[in-house]
Amino acid sequence: MQIWVDADACPKVIKNILFRAAERVGVCLIMVANQPVKIPRSRYIKAIKVSAGFDMADNKIIQQVQAGDLVITADIPLADAIIKKGAYGLNPRSEFYTADNIKQHLSMRNFMEELRSGGVDTGGPSPLSNADRQAFANELDRFLVSSRKQK
Fold first, then answer.
1. CA–CA distance, 106 with 101 (Å, rounded to integer)
2. In which order are the strands placed within the sheet that holds 2-6?
3. Which one-letter DSSP state was computed for residue 52?
4. E strand or H helix that includes residue 78
């Protein structure tokens, strides 16, 4: 099992949580972005820089992800693609994407996109609170413990 991160849009505080988790449990963490990503020295953490362009990081993750891997992303179409490959998706706000809920997430994303393209200001996500950070760390830990038990 590896953890893949859609690193271009991943908040720094979430990256830091992931760095600590990778070291603590000895899991491979791969940051994928179209710009350089600062990572700590670690045998468990690496970064892959892809070409600039629309969905280049997403496409790299989709190509490389294996069943059972975890992908950290807020990108709903990416989450849909990795779920189809048998991987797991977790967004920075601690919600897991599953086969049971991904279609609902896609519908809501498409609806919001239609509103925005029609000129409606839908705002953006609120900043991550301390509670959001703690919830993410807790969900990540639960996943890592669960995946180790399944081995």
1. 9
2. 45-49, 28-33, 2-6, 70-72, 88-90, 96-97
3. S
4. helix 76-84
Residue 74 has phi, psi (to 5 degrees) of: -105, 0
Residue that has been written with the tokens 């990503």 in this structure? 37
Whole-Å CA distances, 114 to 8, 97, 99, 121: 24, 22, 24, 11
Sorted by sequence, the CB contacts under 8 Å of residue 80 that are 6+ apart come out as 97, 102, 105, 106
Query: How confident is the model over 92-120, as a mean pLDDT?
Result: 77
Tracing tokens 């919830």 back to the chain, one arrives at 135
Q: Across the strands, what pairs with 79?
A: none
Q: What angle do CA 99, 101, 102 make, to 5 degrees?
A: 70
Please give the residue that has the higher pLDDT: either 150 or 31.
31
Q: What is the pLDDT of residues 18-71, one digit of tens each?
A: 999 999 999 999 999 999 999 999 999 999 999 988 889 999 999 999 999 999
For 11, how many CA atoms within 13 A lie in the half-sphere containing its CB? 17
Q: Which residues pair with 3 in a beta bridge?
A: 29, 70
Contact indicator for 3, 27 with CB cutoff of 8 Å: yes
